[in-house]
Amino acid sequence: MPVFVLAVPAAAELIGAGLLALRAAIIANRARVAYQAAQAARLAAQAARAAELAEKAAEAAQAQAQAKEKEESAAKTGTTTVVGKKKLDCGEDGSYGDLQKKSGDNKFDRDHIPSKAALQEAARDMIAEAGITLSEGAEKALFGDNGAISKAGKTIATPKADHKNHSRTYGHRNTPKQVSQDAQDLQKAAEKDLDAIEEAMDDEDTEKEMDPECLEKYKKAADKIRKKTHAEYLDDLKKLIKDAIKNNPRK
């Protein structure tokens, strides 16, 4: 009889312990599920961030590729498209560096007169005659696509089609022989460049984009450019060369 009385509390204790163990297991399982959910959320966030970064990298690469394509195209045609805040007016003149600050809105080229290639060739002739060896930095500063010689060159905002179709120095028309000859007399080269455009624009049978108002502005700009002598061009180039050497000495 005493044995039977003692067995009841023992069974109750066993049942209570089992319930506690079951409860602990449920809590542990919930904690594990919550942890797994948190891990999944963290991984999803990381994946989303990685996808966002990849998309931005792709956009940056595309923009860089487009910019490079424009630069390569500019190198072939002797022009560079640079987007500024203000708009260029047809026939507007100034240094290439000044006109760079305005947008051609894909309508106008900043046409170097005389050509950038002729100006650079004249500078190279001067450097060779002086027996100067430029540092890599000075070379780039002077002759880069957007270097000092290019920026200082006189330009006129010209409709793209007129520049392409009628300029004597556009693309393949500016042969090495022509560049070399133009470099020997930059004033004469400028006159030839201006005459080619003006004669085409004055010809009633010539297909053109330049309207009468633009042509009037173009001719006024042309008159200013024609007054600059070959000696004055050389003086300007000497200053640019001197500055490039000073700012980029050989090591």
TrEMBL record:
Residues 44-73 form a coiled coil. Residues 163-175 have a biased composition (Basic residues). Keywords: Coiled coil. Residues 154-193 are annotated as: Disordered. This is Uncharacterized protein. It comes from Pseudoduganella buxea. The lineage of its organism: Bacteria, Pseudomonadati, Pseudomonadota, Betaproteobacteria, Burkholderiales.
